[in-house]
Predict the structure of Replication initiation protein.
Amino acid sequence: MNKDYKTDDIPKEKLTGALRRGSVKKHVAAIHVSGKLTLLQRKLSNVLLLNAYDTLTTGQVHMIDARTLCLMIGYNSNDMDTLKASLRGLAETVAEWDMLDDQGQQEWGVSSLLSYARLKGGVCEYAYSPALAAKLSDPAVFALINLNIQRRFTSGHALALYENCYRFVRTGSTGWWSLDLFRRLMGVEDSDYYAIYKHLNAKIIKPAVAEVNKTSNIVVTPEIRKRGRAVTDIRFKIAENPQLAILDLDDGTGVRRSDVYSRLLALGVSDRLARQWIAQHGEDHVAEKIAYVGQQRNVKNPVGYLSAALKDGFTTEPKPAAPSSSRAKDLERIRDLVASRTPTQRDADRRLFMSQIESADARADFERHGWMSALNTVSIKAFWQEMVPDEFEET
């Protein structure tokens, strides 16, 4: 999920406490966001960021269809009022940073999470302020949250803790936060009840730590610092969770030497996505899918088609003859429709279709073969006819 950075920017053997060392050019995770966001708003914020990530600094406006957005977050796809309220919350929430820039000068800044959002014609359009976009696009400052992990969270406090800890995963520690800052990150700074550390620890810290450690790809351990008998500061030690470790891209030096990486870039795949696919699927599997895409005719979007092939299991093995020319046309239309969708949209499409399958056998067949599932032929066509009715008018 991260863009490139030089390995000497963050010396791995000297990471602990490196935020205070002049030899470190870029400082990790200096952006703090108010914890008052609801769980759904936090998930919404992460999906919007992932959707916009590749063009954060080059595109002023980003778009995603509202129905897909709702499905990815867990909203009812027709509940536009909830979506509007959540977008409004993001526009009203402040992100703040206080850090050293590349020249070692102190930089403080503040920005709303979204500079604006608009719903029109079934599409959500939104933008970030240029200053915030620059910070979010820098992997040394901000780490993207994996959507598969964030879906597991049931507590907004746990997700807030995970977000604020995961950004420090390379350093192994968040560094010391004052309790006032920690309460603000958890969204409870206005509560007299949580001004008492005993209550904060019992109701916020312990449950959030337990959920992060059970749910995510990291394990966090809180440590406190006292003045006399009063707790004044807290930090979290961070380690990878060996039971739930997921894709964590390194600097990419070895991957970039591979032939498969070069072939991906030749197709137009971004460096970040090329490294992600190789790490996730393996070089041999990616090479097989590249060959498959190369055998197809009239592919207008090879990157999208390859993404769909990797995700939905399009195969290079010979397929049995289609039962009819009509069926063959339907398959081609469905392949093209899937390939034309963004990764976020494709994930939402699969989740929505899976929720409609009642038979266990049909569900297993779809999980194995994706949109080419023979047991789901009729329902797959009906699904896409409803999604894009104009594509099937001839049949």
Observations:
- Residues 2 and 139 are 5 Å apart (CA to CA).
- The two ends are 41 Å apart (CA to CA).
